């Protein structure tokens, strides 16, 4: 077993003022157990700000962070005044290494927020989050001035300023602390009237020593949130709600968007006004001094802080939870709740004060299971969902784009298609099929999480077509075993041993040696395998374990995208190019850093593609480099959600390959359910980027993918705006070339006479999107290098 891995900090709460101008009676800073605020400077000094910026910068450089997220906080941070806030913003940006972006925000009660502050925030690119508990009646239960006056009118006036066109880009969202005495529908409606870009609802801070009010009910907080959730669904999910979105994501096996849910390691640290490092502020509700680390910015590095036992405890996943939590069926979504909410004063020496379920345990269980059943009812195998992309969503796709909801609609259709393919394969292994059917009734999310794996469909299609390994039924048992583990079932089940290993799609590979049949016994936190020769292996799901257990590696990226680097699945070799073997630790670090950089570029330069990628691209399969180190990539037609890429030398090149290949993935999903052209037309057409003519599908796929190439180079040109030099000249040359190529190919499509009405709608949408990109004068034409041969519908940009 290896030691714990240091998780670098990517989120920083920087306290700029330790006092507040409100007297909220539910405030964890001033009204709960911790009293450390009394001995701290009211306002942070420039010396502390400068050193904090240096520490964050050196940490970002040491860990190759593509971005850091800093929240200016308090107390009330606006009390620090414009000069200190300006100094903080400028020092933070100055100390970050090249290529590391700063996401800078301020969280405020907003009673002092005015145009002077907003002009400063506009100049320094500081987004603003506001605390507000609903309408005036709800807000005034707790958020009042010390003399009892309401803060609601001042907050509403400040939010109206934020909503003004000049300042709208600064508006980050609203944060509401729950009081179950408030009307949940009235609270939601009041918040939605303020047109926030994001909402979040926070459970009030409480512990087993100081439990939350329950008003005579068993699960009042779940009831309150579920009423909000139902209203939110009825309104068509008008705004993202972080807690609801986190539950949905964790039920699908993805990362959470909040520390209060899921098993993702905490990557946040607090810097107080005196320069001391602290753990999460919520710990102030546990006991006096609970968040303290004993470290400060002058004497200690952030790596030292990351190794603090309290920090490590919040990064240990299932291993850091109580036995009761580890046995819970929703533990992967709940994650034990917020760490601070587990506190109970030890009754005897040696007790672990946080080794408990959350004081909101019953509420979290009811909330998660109800949302699971409410928004993701089971689909029996062979039953197609009643809805696909709407007309408006098809129009998005026709223009070459597709937001998160649109791509999720595509994914739902693909999941159903995989289910129907498996229904055709199922009788080959009656035992595995019976288990899958049973699991589908009991734990449909667990089944869906495995069936959505791209290479499950790739295997099913190969088997039905009589491809290599067509007689092999072992993968069906592996799929059933992986779903059973995800569902937390404890009974024993047989699993095949292939190539000396037990393969568990979406989870990993266990090297047991030999061949034949092993016996697996699962549980929510770990599983055991008895190999054919009698050897026994114990594996914790989320721990690397020894060298025999190879878990699937996942990279968590800003904006809520979690992507698997799939270097284990036996069926991942579905692309034109051979797949890489298991990545070494160094190669994994290089991939992780490159992906973070490429993703930041994509979010900055190609936001119209980013949300769709985050919603639909679940898997990247590392490929071996092409001939002479050439960049190669591919999208397999029967593996929705995956792309194969040989890691290129630069982050911009990786960003280009990601958006380009995911275009093929999207269009392939559309073509599974819609005819865009006459499939009987066997003519070949000129593609400007190739020397050989292409069939209609290849030309359509090329146009669709190369729109993203055009916009990628347009983004690079914008990045070099006004600059000279070889890189800037290359970007302009590439934009001119690909703009011309793609525009001509769209004209060829439209003139082919083989398009269906929907296909013409797509081709015109693509042509209009290309036309909206400013065209540069082309550089002198030279021969475009011939891309490597690929299957139809998988064109490769130069």
UniProtKB/TrEMBL annotation:
Occurrences of domain Radical SAM core (ranges): 6-245
Compositional bias of kind Basic and acidic residues: 779-792
Keyword hit for S-adenosyl-L-methionine: yes
Domain of life, source organism: Bacteria
GO molecular function: iron-sulfur cluster binding; metal ion binding; oxidoreductase activity
Keywords attached to this entry: Iron, Iron-sulfur, Metal-binding, S-adenosyl-L-methionine
InterPro entries to which the protein is assigned, alphabetical: AKG_HExxH, Aldolase_TIM, rSAM, rSAM_sf, rSAM_SPASM_FxsB, Sulphatase_maturase_rSAM
Keyword ATP-binding: no
Region entry Disordered, spans: 774-798
Pfam families per record: Radical_SAM
PANTHER family: ANAEROBIC SULFATASE-MATURATING ENZYME HOMOLOG ASLB-RELATED, RADICAL SAM DOMAIN PROTEIN
Protein name: Radical SAM core domain-containing protein
Organism field: Kitasatospora viridis
